[in-house]
Amino acid sequence: MSTVRVDPDGNGDFVSIVEAVAQAVPGSIISLAPGEFRWPGRLNVDKVLSFEGNKWDPSDAPSTILNGRIYLCASDPEVWKTDAARVGAFKDIFCKCDSGYCLQVVNGKWDIYGCSFECCSGIAVMITSGSLSLRGCHVGGRDQDSLANNGVLAAGNGSVVLDKSRVRHCKVGVFVRDAARASLLASELCSDHVLFGCLMPNESSLEVTSCTVRGAPEAVFHEESRPARLVQRDNRDVSGGEFRPHSGGGEGEHSFHTLDLVHRRHLPRT
After folding, report:
1. Dihedral of alpha carbons 90, 93, 94, 96, sign
2. Rg of the Cα trace of the chain?
3. How far apart are CA 120 and CA 126, in angstroms?
4. How many CB atoms lie within 10 A of CB 59?
């Protein structure tokens, strides 16, 4: 597995991250120096690559900053079943964008470690197909004055897992639609106005297990929407009290006929 070094100061193989991605062979490691990288339009990643950033200190935020839209569209998904090296990755990188989306996944399998995705007035992380795991990551907006519309939007048949991650400063933290799947495991929802949302009707799945809610959200689900399948287990609020996304049900799995819910919401009140 070859390593390509990118340094805007000219001390690597490339100065431009766009050129490095274009020239790298599939399976390469793109090693990014500390500093900020920008590019026009969006950064198209159409092959399986691993991007590795830097930290000034192991406990600090990443010192490598990608400022712009990132579009992951690697092909040939069958190879993932037999070759783990064909899984793309991001590690120790701070990614940000002022609007639109910060990261969009439309194909491929991607593992992301210790990264932040910050998008004000847009979507921090979006997936419409493929598979994405976020471990030890932060997604959302900058603060309460610069909210993301969504921390995570899962659509199509995309699948996303947030493990020990944080969704923060969002109008709606996690939004699912179509037949997408989203799982939050041992993660935190912090200062989000609404925790979850769904486009109705849907065939989506949402799992919330061992998570903590911090702050006082205005609502749990946007406009009383629900996924077709909801799993809730061992969740807590900031004081340690029990928290259930579906307050009308117990621990475990719940199913919702989302088309019926749509019809019911449009019935006149009696």
Report:
1. negative
2. 19
3. 14
4. 6
The CA angle 45-85-132, to the nearest 5 degrees, is 55
Determine the length of the chain: 270
CA diameter of the chain: 72
Give tens-digit pLDDT for 38-52.
999 999 999 999 999
The enclosing H or E element of 23 equals helix 17-23
CB 173 within 8 A of CB 151: yes
Quick one: pLDDT band at residue 270, thresholds 50, 70, 90?
very low
> In the structure encoding, which two tokens stand for residue 83, read together?
């070759």
77: amino acid identity, one letter: P
Long-range contacts of 4-8 (CB under 8 A, 24+ apart): 4/28, 4/29, 4/30, 4/31, 5/31, 5/33, 6/30, 6/31, 6/32, 6/33, 6/37, 7/33, 7/35, 8/33, 8/35, 8/36, 8/37
pLDDT 10s digits, 210-263:
999 999 899 999 988 999 999 999 999 989 999 999 988 899 999 999 888 887
Q: Whole-angstrom Cα distance, residue 241 to residue 247? A: 13
Taking a C-beta distance cutoff of 8 angstroms, is the pair 31, 7 a contact?
Answer: no
* Strand 50-52 relative to strand 64-73, pairing: unpaired
Exposed e or buried b per residue across 199-223, where buried means at least 16 C-beta atoms within 10 angstroms of its C-beta: bbbbebbbbbeebbbebebeebbbe
